[in-house]
Structure formats: structure tokens, C-alpha cells
TrEMBL record, chains A, B:
The gene is hppA. The chain crosses the membrane at residues 54-73, 80-99, 119-143, 235-255, 261-281, 293-315, 335-358, 379-403, 409-431, 475-499, 519-538, 592-612, 618-638. The keyword Glycoprotein does not apply. The record marks K469 as: Determinant of potassium independence. Its cofactor is Mg(2+). It is a multi-pass membrane protein. It comes from Methylobacterium thuringiense. It is found in: Cell membrane; Endomembrane system. Proton pump that utilizes the energy of pyrophosphate hydrolysis as the driving force for proton movement across the membrane. Generates a proton motive force. This is K(+)-insensitive pyrophosphate-energized proton pump. It catalyses: diphosphate + H2O + H(+)(in) = 2 phosphate + 2 H(+)(out). Its main location: membrane.
Length: 709, 709
């Protein structure tokens, strides 16, 4: 119980950090009345969007809550509710801080770059810490209630099912928030640019563009709320899946509870190191913003190694203790510590690789900029080439991670590595949520007509924001892929458990089931193929949705220009609210069907194959499809997010004065590449993450429901 | 022996058809001196390219020949030689007919559309029949020699190894020809367009553009020789893999030889039906070119059902005979017939689906054309969305094919379905090789200044050529994916065979090996991930190579314009030869490294994993990597070829007068999409096919070499 209390205390530290930092941010100067007016419009739009999004998810959520309560009992349904509500809360609070910090960042940038960085990063850190803290608290407190309050055994099915449902609640928010937010933000961005930059010839963030507020709203609902929901989910499902594996592998052993608490303890310890990391973010004498952020990340990472070592001593008495799982695998507590360190190393490597592929100092981005000189076509060709190529190094890192952690700790070792990777989520989300704040700050500076040097400071912050957004996306997809592998391991372990314990009185559905997961079973091949299809089809649908939403924005802006000719002359104000409102409706409508694809496919697949070939093959097909989703999803998502980031920065590189600079033909080609990259990196690519995870978690729930038949 | 003789007779019919048709085509009027001069330059460039390509492959080939002779004996090395030489011959002869038929097509089109169609289609049919005929003859005659002449038992390892090596010979030509030809053709196309259309403002095929001959050469070396090598390979490896499966499944049974001959007999019978189909290609009263081609395809398909039924009676005495494999699976000869019919149905469905995604009459192409109205960016976004979406239906067809044929005939049933699918390769390649001939005919008409109505006829033929090229690519990737699955089945069956028969005296390497191909083995996951990476990385490298080759073309053309200002005025002739020569060197250089990726990866992977984790995991990882390549390769290749075809035809659709027609802003955006689609559909996408197959065949050879240790 002491361990649990300490874990919860760690989570509460994150919440406390959030409260203190929100107060600190809100105390800052909010700028002129004009700036506050603009920021108010952004905040209003963002809240209106999130309200409608949550209302829509709420309807789906209520149906699922009732279904879960009916099939699996009220404790499981409450787990689902906790996951959904806390994930929503993290996104909602974080975004509300974001839309208040943007204007304060712009104002702080009027005096110094360091001041702007301070406000922007702190507001991002609020979101980050809330994501990690609330996810940890949700799992830890509900687990405490279930095992202490309700007196259930830690490894009992009811506890496992309730925790899996908690992950599912987070997943549900995640898939909708990622996709809806992504469609909103890129519909606004692409549509606004098309009609503003291309047709009307006005710059980005020009207040005469009726879509400009929507564009700034989009940054918040997409990058802030969407990313928060995504990583909340990965965090929650990874911790839960690791606990499920612990419950299966160590059932009946005295070490069981310590093993189940290990992922929670790592999470809790790393919240403290992440908080410490935030205090290391200080602009040095060289004025390098990225350098300041990396200082914080490295501090958090190095401290985490020590913190996890302490956890090892506290739970296992050091590094020499040997364990044996129910499946006969042996490893030591030192091996598990090694896995955690490897998890941190994977994080570091993915950050470095992503920066290489999306940073303006390296070959990939420069090659796209160079190819822009010969036109739109060659820019896009080179961008696609880079996007395909960028999958290789992350894949090799992930493979090396799997092989080394499996050698050290078997499947449980892989799970611990992913847990450690995600333990830094608080800090990493802080880096990402920093992006929309600085982006907004630049927009507000532009719209409010602040002096040029303010805009220069916000631009510098914004450029770093682009890199941190790309880096976070690399981390998000890498961790989602590995987290999904842990979920997949949980699926096979769970399935084996049900089959082994099936009898007349329990798990009757699994009596006599034998599942052949071998690659020579054609149903495994079929599962891999159908699972592998999901990310392609899903990404295609997401791209189409952005195209449609952007088209709607174009129509709306054209209509406003036509009906109010004074807008372009600056004598009439555009109706920003209508554009926001229209996009809100479009994004919510467009997110439904693609979201259902990964949600329903494991269920439909199971029952279709069961009808064709029976239970055994249905379990094999669904299992293989989970791995198929992970496999192609990883590549599709990495290629889209890295490629999109590279396109974006190739444009920035040209704008910095290379190949003819702004306004040159190369720049025009680079703008095309950036437009293509927008839905790639901010809608389709990131939305593949929750798609990967949700198919896996649904499959786990399906097993639980079948076990109750 | 009678059966074998009849099979060989069928193959000889294809060769006879080729000879007769070549004579027929060569008799046609070759047009004016100017036309012949242009055609001569194209022919010269194409031959120069192929010579250098074969010389380069020859060096690699000699090394491999010696290595195979050393490791596996001279009979195996000779098998390799046969595969390589015949594949090269099919491509070389076919291309030489193509570069003579182009000018005759242009000349025939001066009198009638039907005349042009007749010449173009017949010359394509020569390539098609040579591909199917030579592939069949190579396998059948060498098998006859090995089992009759050399007196080896049909199921002996030496026979199997020699046949697999024959497939490998074809693979080697295929990967280089696909990639080198693809880089050449799209380097010329993209580079020529960039500097001609965009910079100098001259139309496509303008004789003043120094890259215009290279562009026409590219059509022949890419679409004709490259596609021929690709399908020769799929044909050969599928037939061989099916025979290997038959040898393993029916070893020691009286039915063994009939089962091994079954795929050959299906191939032979369908050569006859394909020839019959070519005679059904006649322009009807409605002047529909596509309709005429489909008449031929449908005729060939329907006749094939009957022909395969006859084969069933000849080999198995009807549909009711029951067989049992050594692995305990039972099925009937009627079931196998059903599998063959399903194979034909898959072909038909893939043709229909590809036409839907790439034809100008349907939603996908129209949506890309529509999105061109709002600019380059939205054109590319919608094109990418369609390319991703287009993977879904083919995947579902393939999955349905796997499930149904497995139910009817187990793994062998799947192999028979793919065999039947490929039995139509002769006719399908004819459709594809038709494309470059009409494309060239249009170019010659333009360059020779023929009257506008001739150009209109060749344009009509060319538009159909675009569709048939896209359709053939869909078929090529679908069959390659399924063929690779058969190869994968051969890998696992072969591996099991070696393990089961390992002793002190034979297959010593496999003693005590137990391979866990289950998805819960992390090395299987690692294999899937690493295999899945290959198509992404390979496609990225291919795209980059095209970009570089196109850049070199731009430089060369700019240099010529600069040094000879008379070119643009029409007073000086460009040096076409230098552009061809330069591209030849660039394409050959660029094809080497990407080609080695799929060739070396199974070998490197095996030895690296063996060093890390031992033999068992090495076999599991390599096996899983084969399936990983198939899985992502299928999706990457389908999305690229369909997406590229859709972009191409969206441009054509706009040129037909929609959305403002030629010269409008929408058209400019569509040209960008077409440029992006070029390397997608003609280089990277199609080159993934041989990459999929060659990894699988290398793995089979690796087993054979290890068995000889």
C-alpha cells in the first residue's frame, strides 16, 4: 500500500505542477485590447469545437458505457468512463491554457525571446504533466479502489477487464480527437491558404482572411488537444497492457503485486524527473531555443535513469533478483532495469532521427528545397522519396529495441521498455503543446499589427515549434507502435489464458479452441493482409476528408469576400465565427466514418471469419490483423509525419533566403509541398496512431466479452 | 512423356505465333523517310540501352553462375542461366519488335484507326506470347532434360534446386530491368517535361527537345522490356514454386508427376487460348479500342476455363479424383479446377477494379481532376488519397481468393489459382506492350509533322494505352503478391522438409532445428517489421533515383540549348544521342544499389540473426521477413501504380476539355500530379514487384545452399 500511495503522490505532483504553472502563466501580461480580442476569438472557437466534439463522442460513449456495463459489469464500465473523462479533461484543460498562453507569449516576446519561450513552454508543460499525471492517477487510483476498496485479487479478470476498459475509454477520445482535430486544423490551414495566399494574394495570418481565426483554433484543437489525447491513450494502454502481462505472467507468485506496480512506479518516478526537466529549460547565452528545450529533455532523461534505479531497489531490492514467469521465462530485476534504460534510449534515438529528417540543417530537407528549383512536381517527388526513406532508421531502432529487451526480459521486458519510453510523455507532450502556442503567438502578433521584431521573435519560436511538433510525432508513432505490440502480446497471452482455463463453468466459449498463429496458416496471412489494409484505407479517408473540409472553407471564404467587398479593403470585418462553425460541423461529420473503420474491423472480422471457418481461425485472423495494423501503420505513420515535417521545413529553408527566397518559383513549389505535407503530417499520419492502438484494445475487450458468454 | 510433349508443343505455338506475327508486322509500310529516321533513332537508343543493361547484369550473372555452380552444382547453375537468358531474350526480341512497330502504327493510323490498332496490338502480342512461351518452354524443357535426359527423380532435390535457380535467373533480369528501365523512362519523361514544357514552353514530343528521343526510348525499355521481364519472372517462379509444392506434397505417390505437370499444362493450354484471344481483337462498329481489347481478353478468359477443364480430364481423368498430400490435406481434382477458375476470376476483378481507379469515367479520376481546380497542392492531396484508397478492393479480392482456394485445395490450391492467373500473362503482356508502341507512334507522328487527324488517331490509341498499362500493372502486382505467397509457402514447406529429413549424412545444417513461426515469437515480429521496411525503403530509393536522373537530363538539355541556340529556332538539330547515352549511364548506375537491397537482405538478415540468436530464430526471422515484404509491398505497389495512373488520366480528362481544358490553371496543377505520378506508377511501384519476388526466391536458394553444407 505504501508503494501505491507513493505512486499516487507522484501523479498528484503532476497535477500540482499544473495548477501552480497555470497560475504563473495566467499572471502574465495579456497584451493590448486588440490582442486580447483576437485571442478571445481563438479561445471561443476552440472551446466551441471541443464542446461539440465531446458532445458527439459523449453519445458514442454512453452507448458503449451501457454495452460494457451489460456485457462486463459496472466496474468495467466505470473504468471506461474514467479513461474517457480523464483523457478529455487533460485535453480540455491543456487547450484552455494554450489559448490563454498564446497572447501572453506574444506579449512576452515584445520584451525578450527568453520571456516568450518561458510562457510558451510552461503552458505546454501544463498539458504534458496533466496527460502523464491524470493517466497515471486514473490507473493507479482505480486499481487501488478495485484491489483495496472492492477487495478484488490483483490478477483477477475483473481487475484486468476494468483496466483494459480504462484504456479503451482513452482510446475512444483519442481516435476522435486526433482525427476530428486533424481534419479541423488542416481543413482550415489548407483551405485558408488556398483562398488567401493563392487567390487573394494576402499573407498567412492576415486579419482580412475569414479563415485565419479558424486556422489558429485548429492548431490548438489538433496539436494540443489531439496530441494530448493520443499520448494519454498510449500512456494508459501501455501501462494497462504491462499490468495485464504481469498479472498473467506472475499469477499466484508473491512478486505479482510488485510486478503490477512496476510500470506505475516507473511512471510516477518519471513524472518527478520530467518536472525537474522543465526547470532546466532556460535560454542560454547562444539564444538557441532548441538547445534550451533539449537541455530540459536530456535532464529529464538522465534523471529518469536514476529514478528508475531507485524504483528497482524499492520494489525488487536491487538488480540481482531473479524472476520466472508462468510461461517459463526467467530474468532478473537488473534485466528489467536494462529494458527501461533501452526504452529511454529508443526515445532519444527517435528524437535525433526525426530531427535529422525534418530539420533544416540536414540532407533530407535540403534535398527537397533543392528539388523545388525545378518545380512543383520534383518537389513533391523528392518529398515522397524522403517520406518513404525516413521509415528505415526508426524501424531499425525499434527492431534493435525489441531484440535487446526480449533478450533481457522476454515479452515483459519489451513492455517495460515501452513503459519507460512513455514515462517521459509528460515532457514530450510539453514540447509538442509548445508548438500551437508559439504558432498562435505569431498569428496574434501579425493580426494585432505588433512591430516587426516581435514577429521575428515569434517566428523563431514558431520554427522551433515545427521541429518539436515533428519530433513529438515521431515519438508518438514509435511509442504507439511498440505500445500496440505490448497490447498484441496481451491479446495472445489473454487468449492462451482463457483457453487454458476454459471449462463448463467458465470461459465456455474457449473450450476446445486451438489457435494456430503460425505464418503457414493462411488465415494468419489473411489477417495480416486485412490488418495491413486498415492504415492505408484509413489514411486515404483522412486525406479525402481534409480535402473536402478545405474545399468547404474555400467556398465560405469566397462567399464572404463576395458579399462583403469591404473585407479586402480593410473597411469591413470578416465573420470569423462562421468559418469556425462551418469547419466544426465539417470536421465532426468527417471524423465519424473513418474512426469506425479501426473500431469495428476486429469485431466484424471475428464474426465473419467465425462464420466462414470457425472460432479457431477467427481468433487467428483477428490476432494476425492486429499485427498487420501495427506493421503497415508504423510505416505509413512514420513516412507521413516525417515527410510532412520535411516539406514544411523545406519551405521555411527557402524562406530563409535559399534558392531565391520568398516569392521565387522555388518557393511556390515548396508551398505546394507544404500543402501536401499538411494533411500528411497533421491529419492522416498522426491519426494512424490511435487507429493502431484501438484495434488492439478492442480485440482485448472482445476476448473479455466472449469469456463472459 | 506424351503430356510433356504436348506441353512443349503449346509453348512452341507461342514462339511460332511470335515468328509469324513479327513477319506480318514487318511487312507493313514503315512510312516516310523522316518517320523512319526518327524510329531509327529510337530503335538505336533502345538497343544501346538494353545492351549496356544486359552487359551490367551479365557481370553480376557470371559471378552468380559460378557461385551457384560451386555451391549447388552445374545443373543448378545452368537452370539459372536458362532463366536469365530466356527472360532477357523475351524482353530483347519484344522490344525490337516494338521499336519497329511504332512507326508502322503511325503510318497505318494515317489510313484508319483500326489499322493502327491492328499493328500496335500485334506487336504487343509478340512480346506477350514470347514471355509466356519462353517461360513455359524453359521450365518444361529443362524439367524434361533433368527427369528424362539426366534421369533424375522428379521430386529430387537436384530437380527442385535447378528449377528454383531458373526462377532466380528470371528474377535477376527482372529486378534490374524493371528498375533500370523505370529510372530511364521516367528520368527522360520528367526531365524532358521540366525543361521542355515548363522552361522552354515547347509541347511534348517536340523535335526541338533534345530529350524527346530518350523519352520514346524510355517507353520501350521501361514498359515493354521491363514489364516483359517482370511477368516472365512471375510466370517462371510461380510455375516453379507450384512444382516444388507438388514435389513436397505428393512425394512418393503415383500422382506426383501429374501434379508437377499440372501447372505446366495449364500454362500450355492457356497459351493456345491467349492466341485465340488475340484474333478476337477487332475494332467494332462503335470504334471502341478498349472494347476491342476487352473482347480479346474475355475470349481468352472464357476459353481458358474450357481448356483447363480439358487439362483436368487429361491429367486426372475428370473432376472427382481425390488426393491427399503428405501433410494430410485432402482435395479433389474438381477442387483444383475450381481454384484455377478462381484465379481467372481474380484476374478479371483486378482488371475491373484497376480500370475503375484509373479510368476517366469514374469517381477517382474525376475527383482528382476536380481538386486540380484549387491548385497543385489539392491535386496532389487528392491523388495521394486515391492512391491509398485504391489498395482496399484488390486486397479484399486477394483475401477472398486465398480463403476460397485454400478451402478447395489447401496451399496447393492457392498455388494453382495463381498459376491460372498467370497463364493469361501472354495476353495481358500484349495489352501492356501495346502501350509503348502507340505512345511512340504518337511521338513519331508529332515529330514527323504528320497531319492533325493522324495525331488524333494515335492519341486515341495512346489514351487506351495508358489504361491498359495501368490495368497490366494492377495484374502484375496482384499476381506478384500471390506468386510470392506461393514462394513463401515453398519456403516453409522446404524448410520443414529439410528439418524432417536432416541426419548426419544429409542436410546436416538443419539437424535439431525447430522453427517457431508463431506471431508470439518476437523474431517473427522482427522479421515482419524488417521485411515490411524493404518496399518502403526501396521505393524511396527508386523515387530519389528518378529525381537525380531527371535532374541530369535537365542539365544536359539546358547545355544543348545554351551551346546551340539554333535548336529552338529549328535551324540546328539537337544531339538526341547524347541525352540517351547520358540517361543510359545514369539509369544503369542508379539501379545497382536499390536492386541489391532486396537481393542481399534475406542473406544478411539470416546471418546477423543467426549470430545474435541462433539458427532457429534466423530461419523464423527470414521467413517472417518474406511475408513482411509481401504485405507492405502489395500495398505500396498497388497504391503507387493505381495512384499514378489516376493522376495521369486526370490530366487527360482535363485536356479533354473539363475544368478549363489545356493551358488552364487546373491543367497546370494536373501536370504536377502527372509528374508526381510518373515515378510512382512507372518506376517505384512496378519495381516493388520483382523486389517482393526476389527476396522470396533468394530465401529458397539460401535453404538449398545451407542444405548442401
Amino acid at each position: 500500500m505504501t508503494a501505491l500511495l507513493l505512486i499516487i503522490l507522484g501523479g498528484l505532483c503532476a497535477v500540482a505542477y499544473g495548477i501552480v504553472t497555470i497560475r504563473d502563466v495566467m499572471k502574465r501580461d495579456a497584451g493590448t485590447a486588440r490582442m486580447q480580442e483576437i485571442a478571445g476569438a481563438i479561445a471561443e472557437g476552440a472551446q466551441a469545437y471541443l464542446k461539440r466534439q465531446y458532445a458527439t463522442i459523449g453519445i458514442v460513449g454512453i452507448v458503449l458505457f451501457v454495452a460494457l456495463a451489460y456485457f462486463l459489469g459496472i466496474k468495467v464500465a466505470i473504468g471506461f468512463l474514467i479513461g474517457a473523462v480523464l483523457s478529455g479533461a487533460a485535453g480540455f484543460i491543456g487547450m484552455n491554457v494554450s489559448v490563454r498562453a498564446n497572447v501572453r507569449t506574444a506579449q512576452a516576446a515584445t520584451t525578450s525571446l527568453g520571456g516568450g519561450l518561458d510562457v510558451a513552454f510552461k503552458s505546454g508543460a501544463v498539458t504534458g504533466m496533466l496527460v502523464a499525471g491524470l493517466a497515471l492517477l486514473g490507473v493507479a487510483i482505480y486499481y487501488t479502489y478495485l484491489t483495496r476498496g472492492a477487495g478484488l485479487a490483483p490478477a483477477s479478470r475483473e481487475v484486468i477487464d476494468a483496466l483494459v476498459a480504462l484504456g479503451f475509454g482513452a482510446s475512444l477520445i483519442s481516435i476522435f480527437a486526433r482525427l476530428g482535430g486533424g481534419i479541423f486544423t488542416k481543413g482550415a490551414d489548407v483551405g485558408g491558404d488556398l483562398v488567401g495566399k493563392v487567390e487573394a494574394g494576402i499573407p498567412e495570418d492576415d486579419p482580412r482572411n475569414p479563415a485565419t481565426i479558424a486556422d489558429n483554433v485548429g492548431d490548438n484543437v489538433g496539436d494540443c488537444a489531439g496530441m494530448a489525447a493520443d499520448l494519454f491513450e498510449t500512456y494508459a494502454v501501455t501501462v494497462v497492457a504491462t499490468m495485464v502481462l504481469a498479472a498473467i505472467f506472475f499469477a499466484g507468485q508473491p512478486i505479482l503485486e510488485a510486478m503490477m506496480l512496476y510500470p506505475l512506479a516507473i511512471g510516477s518516478a518519471c513524472i518527478l524527473t520530467s518536472i525537474a526537466g522543465t526547470y532546466a529549460v532556460k535560454l542560454g547565452a547562444n539564444q538557441s531555443i532548441m538547445g534550451a528545450l533539449y537541455k530540459g529533455l536530456i535532464t529529464a532523461g538522465v534523471l529518469s535513469i536514476g529514478a528508475i534505479a531507485i524504483v528497482n531497489f524499492a520494489l525488487f531490492g536491487g538488480f540481482g533478483t531473479t524472476f520466472k514467469t508462468s510461461t517459463g521465462v526467467t530474468f532478473t530485476s537488473g534485466g528489467l532495469f536494462g529494458c527501461a534504460v533501452i526504452g529511454l534510449a529508443i526515445t532519444a534515438l527517435i528524437v535525433v532521427i526525426t530531427e535529422y529528417y525534418t530539420g533544416t540543417n540536414f540532407r533530407p530537407v535540403k534535398s527537397i528545397a533543392q528539388s523545388s528549383v525545378t518545380g512543383h512536381g520534383t518537389n513533391v517527388i523528392q518529398g515522397l522519396a524522403i517520406s518513404l526513406e525516413s521509415t528505415a532508421l526508426p524501424a531499425l531502432v525499434i527492431v534493435a529495441g525489441i531484440i535487446s529487451t526480449y533478450a533481457l526480459g522476454g515479452l515483459f521486458g519489451i513492455a517495460i521498455a515501452v513503459t519507460a519510453m512513455l514515462a517521459l510523455a509528460g515532457f514530450i507532450v510539453a514540447l509538442d503543446a509548445f508548438g500551437p502556442v508559439t504558432d498562435n503567438a505569431g498569428g496574434i502578433a501579425e493580426m494585432a499589427g505588433l512591430p516587426a521584431d516581435v514577429r521575428k521573435a515569434t517566428d523563431a519560436l514558431d520554427a522551433v515549434g515545427n521541429t518539436t511538433k515533428a519530433v513529438t510525432k515521431g515519438y508518438a508513432i514509435g511509442s504507439a507502435g511498440l505500445g500496440a505490440l505490448v497490447l498484441f502480446a496481451a491479446y495472445t497471452s489473454d487468449l492462451n489464458y482463457f483457453i487454458a482455463n476454459a471449462s463448463d463453468t467458465q470461459y465456455r466459449f474457449f473450450r476446445g479452441v486451438t489457435v494456430d498463429f503460425s505464418l503457414s496458416n493462411p488465415y494468419v496471412v489473411v489477417g495480416l493482409l486485412l490488418g495491413g489494409l486498415i492504415p492505408f484505407l484509413f489514411a486515404g479517408m483522412a486525406m479525402t476528408a481534409v480535402g473536402r473540409a478545405a474545399g468547404a472553407v474555400v467556398e465560405e471564404v469566397r462567399r464572404q469576400f463576395r458579399e462583403k467587398p469591404g473585407i479586402m479593403k480593410g473597411t469591413d470585418r470578416p465573420d470569423y465565427g462562421r468559418a469556425v462553425d462551418m469547419l466544426t460541423r465539417a470536421a465532426i461529420k468527417e471524423m465519424i466514418v473513418p474512426s469506425l473503420l479501426p473500431v469495428l474491423s476486429p469485431i466484424v472480422l471475428f464474426f465473419v471469419i467465425q462464420a466462414i471457418a470457425g472460432k479457431n481461425e477467427a481468433f487467428a485472423t483477428v490476432g494476425a490483423s492486429l499485427l498487420g495494423v501495427i506493421l503497415t501503420g508504423l510505416y505509413v505513420a512514420i513516412s507521413m509525419t516525417s515527410g510532412g515535417g520535411a516539406w514544411d521545413n523545406a519551405k521555411k529553408y527557402i524562406e530563409d533566403g535559399h534558392h531565391g527566397g520568398k516569392g521565387s518559383d522555388a518557393h511556390k513549389a515548396a508551398v505546394t509541398g507544404d500543402t501536401v505535407g499538411d494533411p500528411y503530417k497533421d491529419t492522416a499520419g498522426p491519426a494512424v496512431n490511435p487507429a493502431i492502438k484501438i484495434t488492439n484494445i478492442i480485440a482485448l475487450l472482445l476476448l473479455a466479452i466472449l469469456a463472459h458468454q
